[in-house]
Design brief:
Layout (H helix, E strand, L loop, with lengths): L3 H22 L6 H15 L11 H42 L9 H26 L2 E3 L2 E5 L8 E7 L10 H12 L5 E5 L13 H8 L8 E4 L9 E2 L2 E2 L10 H9 L2 E3 L3 E5 L3 E5 L16 H6 L7 E4 L6 H7 L3 E4 L10 H8 L5 E5 L2 E5 L16 E10 L2 H5 L1
Parallel strand pairs: 1-15, 2-15, 3-4, 4-5, 5-8, 10-11, 11-12, 12-14
Antiparallel strand pairs: 3-15, 6-7, 9-10, 13-14
Helix pairs in contact: 1-4, 3-4, 5-6
């Protein structure tokens, strides 16, 4: 509600700019009924996000959410491009005024139409590219070495995915593509570092089909996951959530879905792979989950494990890196950041997180943060990629041989 007045003022400014430009383009847009149609269509797009708070028939609700997600993406670049255009206009006018140049041509209708057309083309190109790019899943490989004996294994192939955000934007086709990418890697283990769902279980396109798709993952030692901050049942308005006196937890159907899909949920719990390597799933820091009041500290994690064996932690957020490293964790696999998802978001996430994307060696601990498979909010990716991350972990047998 604090942001609403600014959002309304911003949209009024954009709408006025749009109508002025259309009127300059052709006389047809001078008609009042045309103005009314433009205003109504614009208002429907601008306030489509309110549909998430209103009970609508399923089909209409899904349509409204799609409109909202596309609109939020285009709005970001409308603001970005129009702001740059206005800044250029101010700079050029200042130069003309200081040099005493004639500004008639600068203020002409033709200049306004051409500059507006350039803005519209740039916005359209970026938006369409972002929509297409969001649907393409790439593969980003990593090779690391852990200075511990891997017991029965010389190496382990782990495929990391995160931030699926299954719901209105991410459906069965995208997940099927992800599974194909995973299977081509012939993984020993697959880990999902949170944000499996997009807050609303009812938003799933076809739960049964999705379960069957996940069961097609071919992994020698299984698929393991931890939850992230959206893996709970709550309403969202343009990416903002609402405070609640009650503890926010996963929808029980989410837990049942993972079990049916063959995914082992690790909530501050571990599994020992082939009596050789630990995989530990951390609870989310903000929403630790059912039965957990506060997630374990890095020290508490390691107290429950045999530290002579390699320890791989999957955590949604790439936080407490120093603490995890000091406690003796060998590999920390995360998601959450989306690498900013849409430029210039990747510039801001780099300011927030010590490692917002990619690889970081934190005092001997290997931290890898993936940009994720899915999307949150705007149905676009600009300047970032959707990815699966195959990680080849080699173990150092030197210690065992020396003993």
């Amino acid at each position: 509600f604090l942001i609403a007045p600014f959002y309304i003022a911003l949209n009024i400014y954009i709408l006025i700019w749009l109508i002025r430009w259309l009127k300059a383009c052709h006389g047809f847009f001078h008609k009042k009924w045309v103005h009314a149609v433009i205003i109504i269509l614009y208002a429907l797009a601008a306030f489509s996000m309110l549909a998430g708070l209103i009970d609508l028939p399923t089909g209409l609700h899904r349509l409204a959410k799609h409109v909202e997600n596309y609109w939020l993406g285009f709005l970001l670049y409308i603001i970005f491009v129009v702001a740059i255009a206005d800044l250029i206009k101010v700079i050029v006018k200042t130069i003309y005024r200081k040099k005493g140049l004639d500004q008639t041509r600068l203020r002409s209708r033709r200049t306004f139409v051409v500059s507006g057309a350039v803005c519209m083309i740039v916005i359209a190109v970026i938006g369409v590219y972002g929509m297409v790019n969001a649907g393409i899943i790439r593969t980003t490989d990593y090779d690391i070495t852990v200075d511990k004996s891997g017991g029965n294994m010389d190496s382990m192939k782990v495929v990391l995915v995160a931030d699926l955000h299954m719901g209105y934007s991410i459906g069965t086709d995208h997940i099927a593509n992800m599974v194909k990418k995973i299977n081509t890697q012939d993984p020993d283990v697959v880990v999902i570092a949170g944000d499996i769902f997009d807050n609303d279980y009812d938003a799933l396109e076809d739960p049964e089909k999705l379960e069957k798709t996940f069961r097609k993952i071919k992994s020698r030692y299984g698929v393991y996951a931890c939850y992230g901050n959206p893996d709970i049942k709550e309403k969202i308005l343009a990416g903002f959530t609402f405070k609640s006196k009650e503890k926010k937890e996963s929808d029980p159907r989410m837990d049942a879905f993972l079990e049916a899909a063959g995914i082992k949920l690790l909530q501050d719990d571990s599994v020992l792979i082939d009596d050789s390597v630990y995989i530990y799933g951390r609870a989310d820091s903000k929403h630790p989950g059912r039965g957990i009041s506060k997630r374990k500290t890095p020290e508490q994690i390691m107290d429950s494990l045999d530290s002579s064996k390699p320890v791989i932690v999957i955590a949604h957020e790439p936080d407490e890196l120093g603490e995890l490293s000091d406690a003796g964790v060998d590999v920390d696999l995360c998601g959450h950041t989306h690498d900013g998802q849409m430029f210039p978001g990747n510039l801001t996430t780099a300011l927030v997180w010590e490692n917002s994307y990619g690889y970081l060696n934190k005092n001997g601990m290997h931290n890898i943060v993936t940009s994720g498979v899915g999307i949150f909010g705007p149905d676009m990716r600009v300047g970032t990629i959707a990815e699966v991350c195959p990680i080849t972990i080699k173990f150092n047998k030197q210690q065992e041989e020396e003993e």
